[in-house]
From TrEMBL:
Domain Nucleoside phosphorylase: 16-235
Keywords (A to Z) from UniProt: Glycosyltransferase, Transferase
Name assigned to this protein: Uridine phosphorylase
Ranges where the record places region Disordered: 245-270
EC number from the UniProt entry: 2.4.2.3
Gene name of the record: deoD
Catalysed reaction equations from the record: uridine + phosphate = alpha-D-ribose 1-phosphate + uracil
Organism from which the protein derives: Glycomyces endophyticus
Matches recorded under CDD domains: PNP_EcPNPI-like
InterPro entries: DeoD-type, Nucleoside_phosphorylase_CS, Nucleoside_phosphorylase_d, Nucleoside_phosphorylase_sf
Top-level EC class: transferase
Ranges of Low complexity composition bias in the record: 247-270
Length: 270
């Protein structure tokens, strides 16, 4: 039991879906998981564990914004032994080729949050990125279902209502696909705890086109995204994961000898 999750050790699966909305967590558990049981209702931030295609999976609400999402992600990774997290969120599109209800996978997440500036003593602009192996499973899962998954950068903003639309316009010019509020923190914490993370978002608002879905749809209609997430985590588990290091990660992280050689004889390129 932690300050914010009332589960006992073992109640939570190694793979966890993370919607911001706790009622989306309930809908996912009731709609997609078999024998789902609620393990926590602290602050009404529901968490459930059940099975999907025979594999244990949990789903935990995170609330809105990086401080709230960081609390749940930290406790899951640090205390409950969670190895894989997939955010299943909503987002606002800032790209002309993306439509309402499309699904975006965040290969990375830029942010205006101060959380990583605080974490790295104000001297590093850390680049939070998705786990490559998990992203690859999501891309394959979407293709197998005939879903057009957009892969690109998200922007994790500390504001939902911005006073600086020109910043969002510039981010669009620099290739950001959509705006949400949690992915950067989740990616950073997964790196810290040697876990895998991916953020999938369904487009609920189109910021350029001025269109939006009703609130009820954000809570209970994002089936394609949830199915991609569940297929990805179960495929990863079946392929030998979840593990701390994804395929394609650097020699320095995957092979200690490589890291030592680089340190001893040739400084890392800057
Ligand atoms: O629908 P969720 O997952 O909460 O995600 C998005 O919706 C909330 C804002 O309405 C923020 O949390 C944002 O990231
Ligand atoms: O525009 C949007 C839609 C969902 N979530 C956000 O953070 N922004």
């Amino acid at each position: 039991m932690t300050a914010h999750i009332s589960a006992e050790p073992g109640d939570i699966a190694e793979s966890v879906l993370l919607p911001g909305d706790p009622l989306r967590a309930k809908w996912i558990a009731e709609t997609f998981l078999t024998d789902a049981e609620c393990y926590s209702q602290v602050r009404n931030m529901f968490g459930f564990t059940g099975t999907y295609k025979g594999k244990r999976v949990s789903v935990q609400g995170t609330g809105m914004g990086q401080p709230s999402a960081s609390i749940y992600t930290h406790e899951l990774l640090d205390v409950y032994g969670v190895k894989t997290v997939v955010r299943v969120g909503s987002a606002g599109a800032i790209h002309d080729d993306i439509e309402l209800r499309d699904v975006v996978a965040g290969i990375g997440a830029s942010t205006n949050s101060s959380m990583n500036r605080i974490r790295f003593n104000g001297v590093v602009d850390y680049a939070p990125v998705a786990d490559f192996g998990l992203l690859r499973q999501a891309v394959d899962a979407a293709a197998a279902r005939g879903i057009d998954l957009h892969v690109g950068q998200l922007y994790s903003s500390d504001t939902f209502y911005t006073d600086a639309p020109e910043v969002e316009a510039k981010l669009a010019d620099y290739g950001i696909l959509a705006i949400e509020m949690e992915a950067a923190a989740i990616y950073t914490l997964a790196a810290k705890f040697k876990a895998r993370a991916l953020a999938l978002c369904t487009i609920s608002d189109h910021i350029l086109k001025g269109t939006e879905l009703p609130a009820a749809d954000r809570q209970e209609s994002f089936s394609e995204m949830v199915e991609i997430a569940l297929d990805a985590v179960t495929a990863l588990a079946a392929s030998g994961g979840p593990g701390p290091v994804g395929p394609g990660l650097s020699a320095a992280r995957g092979h200690p000898a490589g890291a030592a050689a680089r340190t001893a004889s040739s400084p890392a390129p800057r």
